[in-house]
């Protein structure tokens, strides 16, 4: 029943696996369909043609599957590609329509795609615009496995309960068997009579089988008793004859009569001894055939030993014995057998040949290969032989064919028993000299040569399997890091890692965020760095989404916040709030507004005094600046008003935080917006002219992120470095670096001249995921930068 339940579970598991796959596809297809509709809703036509304003919500919808990479494409049958990734796989034989079409395709990894379209009215007529959105299958596969495992767990519980009921039912239904067992236990051992009764038909066959077994057992016991009776009769007859000869010798009246009687008594004694020996031999052979005594043995040494012992017997005088075994090489005579039983069988064959043959008998013993799988032991003599009609009867117990040389009739019976216990074949025939030819054909084992070859091959395979992997040469490993973080801020981390890993040298190359993204995109496998670190979270997500990162096994002790890790490939390790830096000599501490709306009014009210005194990022050169600016747009409608007032104030644009802080400290700027918080706090701690201001409504928080490229030269060491960043490196960041660690430590909040915990409720982390790809869309980015360029005062960037 358990096997039946298992087979049923196997069938159900196949059906459940397919159901789980379909259910997970339906669930995640809703995300694809929702994203596609969201994109199509933002497609429009105008004087410049068909445009699309990729909605942030579309990528956020796809971000609900946090482990999946995404790709998209917007196109039309009139203008072709509009935006997105070109050359995405298309569904087979499907025309663009308003109904969503879902399909699977490979695009560097297994993807699930949706294609959907809508018609737009243009000056030239109706035009179809389509969107393709693809998502990797990691989330689907995880949900499919979860549904399958949970379903199978429930079925397993139900099956166990069902088996319990089956067990109870079987015990009740098979109660008659216990009655039968009791009846057999109470029966006398000598009672082999039939069991009477009228059992249920379900066990009628069992009762019939038991009765049949008893009949066979009774028959076997009868045969055994007959054999014992035969043995007793043969022994009693032989001993009686011996006693009679001795009695006659004692009654003899002359010495010659007595000598004749004693000679006959001696002959009878020899026959009695031979009979007794053969009876014991048969009992021994029968016993050894019923136990597991077989093991690899070589026939040639056994034959040589038996012949040597036989030739010492005085009865063998005048008998010529030859041995032919030259064709057998060492190892080719290996059989699975019992050396004692084979020796007894050969001794009986030789004794029969000697006793039944003439005085000048010739006995030829041959050991030869019989085909590739057998080896034969052959004994031939020059005696009278056995007629073909009598050969089958000659191997029965107590059967002697030759009356003049009649023996016990057990010799060939013993040989047959040995052959049968060795899976060998006994073949009787006529020898070239006209006598008996007896052949025992044994199944052969592997030859020693073959066995040694197989053993040697197995030893080689074992040595290869257990051999340790080659140890890498103890030479310096250069770990190459490409980063958009100031070298000084990373120095303590790199030195600490080198001290923990002797023989490792960290090679560090600094980039601007945009330049770093371009360098990684253009790098050949030989030029690819081992680790990529950047504060531009969106550009990092873009690189990982393209499939350039390796999944890492970070220790379980690291509990990163959900917003700071994506796909087990991209990891944040610092906490970087966007802060306002101001010159305390130009702006009194505590006078800056607490909310973004009030800040806009403040700049508008002080437009004259702040003219050319506000610093912002040059969004075309700064990836972190573009990230902060686009995330401000996501947060609300104040971004457009901020752009307006900054334009009126003739803001100045900078490439990076360090330049804005330096200009603010000198008084060239009164304030700088959206600077990297850790740099700002570190500068304020060292320069009294600098003040740092955080807002009360929200402060964007980004994390410096790191990943290991697939083409990294030292991926294992790179993974170790990132694990270090997220464990001991957090303490190093808190105590020895100007960067703020991502994970709280005792020293985390000792930043600058105020406690970051006072602003904990206003921190708004930027979440790693597909949503950050929204403003990297080529058209959307171009339109965003075009709108931002209105802040250009006409002066060249600083």
Automatic annotation (TrEMBL):
Residues covered by the Histidine kinase domain: 230-446
CDD domains linked to this entry: HATPase (cd00075), HisKA (cd00082)
Localization per Swiss-Prot or TrEMBL: Membrane
Cited InterPro entries: 2CSK_N, HAMP_dom, HATPase_C_sf, HATPase_dom, His_kinase_dom, HisK_dim/P_dom, HisK_dim/P_sf, Sig_transdc_His_kin-like_C
Swiss-Prot/TrEMBL catalytic activity: ATP + protein L-histidine = ADP + protein N-phospho-L-histidine
Keywords per UniProt: Kinase, Membrane, Phosphoprotein, Transferase, Transmembrane, Transmembrane helix, Two-component regulatory system
Domain HAMP residue range list: 171-222
Matches recorded under Pfam families: 2CSK_N, HATPase_c, HisKA, SBP_bac_11
Gene Ontology CC: plasma membrane
GO MF term (any one): phosphorelay sensor kinase activity
Source taxon at top rank: Bacteria
Statement: the UniProt record of this protein carries the keyword Transmembrane helix: yes
EC numbers for this chain: 2.7.13.3
Record's protein name: histidine kinase
Organism expressing this protein natively: Pseudooceanicola pacificus
Source lineage: Bacteria, Pseudomonadati, Pseudomonadota, Alphaproteobacteria, Rhodobacterales
């Amino acid at each position: 029943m358990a096997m039946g339940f298992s087979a049923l579970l196997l069938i159900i598991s196949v059906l459940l696996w397919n159901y789980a796959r379909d259910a997970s596809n339906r669930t995640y297809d809703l995300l694809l369909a929702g994203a596609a509709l969201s994109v199509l809703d933002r497609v429009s036509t105008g004087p410049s043609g068909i445009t699309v304003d990729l909605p942030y919500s579309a990528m956020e919808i796809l971000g609900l599957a946090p482990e999946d990479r995404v790709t998209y494409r917007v196109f039309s049958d009139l203008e072709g590609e509009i935006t997105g990734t070109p050359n995405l796989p298309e569904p087979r034989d499907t025309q663009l329509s308003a109904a969503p079409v879902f399909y699977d395709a490979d695009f560097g990894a297994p993807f699930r795609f949706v294609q959907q379209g809508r018609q737009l009215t243009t000056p030239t007529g109706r035009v179809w615009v389509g969107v393709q959105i693809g998502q990797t299958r990691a989330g689907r596969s995880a949900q499919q496995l979860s549904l399958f495992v949970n379903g199978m767990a429930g079925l397993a519980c139900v099956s166990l309960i069902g088996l319990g009921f089956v067990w109870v039912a079987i015990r009740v239904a098979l109660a008659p068997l216990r009655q039968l067992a009791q009846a057999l236990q109470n029966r006398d051992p000598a009672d082999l009579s039939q069991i009477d009764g009228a059992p249920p038909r379900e066990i009628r066959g069992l009762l019939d089988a038991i009765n049949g077994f008893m009949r066979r057992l009774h028959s076997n016991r009868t045969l055994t008793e007959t054999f014992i009776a035969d043995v007793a009769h043969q022994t009693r007859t032989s001993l009686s004859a011996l006693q009679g000869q001795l009695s006659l010798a004692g009654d003899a009246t002359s010495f010659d009569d007595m000598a004749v009687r004693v000679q006959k008594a001696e002959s009878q004694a020899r026959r009695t001894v031979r009979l007794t020996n053969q009876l014991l031999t048969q009992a021994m052979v029968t016993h050894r055939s019923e136990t597991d005594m077989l093991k690899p043995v070589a026939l040639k040494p056994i034959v040589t030993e038996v012949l040597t012992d036989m030739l010492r017997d005085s009865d063998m005088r005048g008998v010529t014995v030859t041995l032919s075994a030259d064709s057998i090489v060492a190892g080719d005579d290996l059989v699975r057998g019992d050396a004692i039983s084979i020796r007894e069988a050969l001794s009986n064959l030789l004794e029969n040949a000697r006793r039944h043959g003439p005085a000048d008998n010739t006995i030829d013993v041959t050991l030869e290969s019989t085909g590739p799988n057998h080896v034969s032991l052959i004994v031939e003599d020059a005696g009278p032989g056995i007629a073909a009609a009598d050969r089958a009867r000659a191997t029965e117990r107590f059967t002697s064919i030759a009356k003049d040389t009649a023996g016990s009739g057990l010799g060939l019976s013993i040989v047959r028993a040995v052959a049968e216990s060795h899976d060998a074949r006994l073949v009787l025939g006529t020898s070239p000299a006209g006598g008996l030819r007896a052949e025992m054909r044994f199944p052969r084992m592997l030859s020693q040569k073959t066995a040694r070859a197989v053993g040697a091959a197995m030893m080689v395979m074992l040595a290869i399997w257990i051999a340790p992997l080659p140890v890498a040469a103890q030479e310096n490993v250069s770990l190459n890091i490409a980063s958009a973080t100031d070298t000084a801020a990373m120095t303590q981390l790199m030195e600490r890692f080198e001290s923990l890993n002797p023989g490792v040298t960290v090679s560090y190359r600094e980039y601007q965020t945009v330049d770093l993204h371009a360098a990684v995109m253009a790098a050949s496998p030989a030029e690819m760095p081992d680790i990529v670190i950047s504060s531009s979270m969106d550009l990092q997500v873009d690189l990982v989404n393209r499939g350039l990162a390796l999944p890492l096994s970070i220790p379980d002790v690291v509990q990163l916040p959900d917003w700071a890790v994506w796909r087990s490939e991209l990891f944040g390790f610092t906490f970087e709030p966007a802060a306002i830096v101001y010159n305390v000599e130009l702006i009194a501490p505590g006078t800056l507004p607490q909310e973004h709306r009030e800040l806009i009014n403040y700049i508008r009210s002080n437009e004259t005094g702040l003219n050319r005194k506000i610093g912002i990022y040059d969004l075309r050169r700064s990836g972190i600046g573009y990230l902060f600016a686009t995330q401000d747009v996501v947060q609300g409608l104040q971004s457009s008003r901020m752009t307006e007032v900054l334009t009126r104030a003739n803001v100045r644009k900078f490439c990076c935080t360090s330049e804005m802080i330096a200009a603010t400290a000198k008084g060239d700027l009164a304030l700088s917006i959206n600077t990297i918080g850790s740099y700002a706090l570190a500068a304020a701690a060292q320069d009294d002219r600098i003040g740092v201001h955080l807002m009360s409504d929200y402060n964007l928080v980004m994390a410096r992120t790191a990943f290991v490229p697939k083409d990294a030269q030292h991926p294992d060491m790179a993974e170790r470095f990132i694990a270090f960043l997220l464990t001991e490196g957090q303490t190093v960041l808190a105590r020895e670096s100007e960067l703020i660690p991502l994970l709280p430590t005792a020293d985390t909040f000792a930043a600058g001249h105020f406690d970051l915990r006072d602003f904990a409720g206003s921190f708004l982390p930027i979440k790693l995921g597909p949503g950050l790809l929204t403003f990297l869309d080529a058209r959307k980015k171009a339109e965003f930068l075009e709108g931002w360029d209105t802040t250009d005062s006409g002066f060249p960037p600083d």
